[in-house]
Hints:
The protein has helices at about 1-15, 20-35, 40-50, 60-75, 80-95, 100-115, 120-135, 140-155, 160-175. α1 packs antiparallel against α2. The mean pLDDT is about 90. It is elongated. The chain contains nine helices and no strands.
Amino acid sequence: EALEYYQKSLSIYKEINDVRGITIQNNNIATIFTSSGESQKSFDLLMINYKLFDKINDTALQIVTMSNLNYECFRLNKLDSSLLFLNQAIELSKKHSKSYDLSGLFRRMSGHFRFINDIDSAILFLNKSYEIDLKNSNIRGQAAYFKLFSEILYEQKKYKSSLKMVEKAIELTNKFNGGV
Length: 180
């Protein structure tokens, strides 16, 4: 039902030649494809958006699109392209002072390095995200940091340290959820 709605909206935006609207709807449709496991279809739509960047002046939308392209390339095992799109999103975020976006992008970069087993780089980017989240009092981001760091420690068989990180993540999660 949502897909049908987005496709109708996309048709209207195409009729009136609203490139920003087209890009937003392509992102929405791509998200549905992603959730149904159709990464190639999602990737194809997102690439249409990527090619429209010179016609829209919406940094946040560009960052979201590149972040989504990063994710789909990762799912399609196109790791070099995944990293390229993520680096572009990070540079654009830095250029436009969108530090909240930057924190999430750094966590995603950490995940990329963790996947290719470059743990030092994974921790470096995870720490960068945490610094931003502390500065911005982003409790959710801080909780994500402790959760992700606990996973790294667990994989390194540092179980006690991992457990401490999990406990901190739970403590912070309780803060932004009002208690569990």
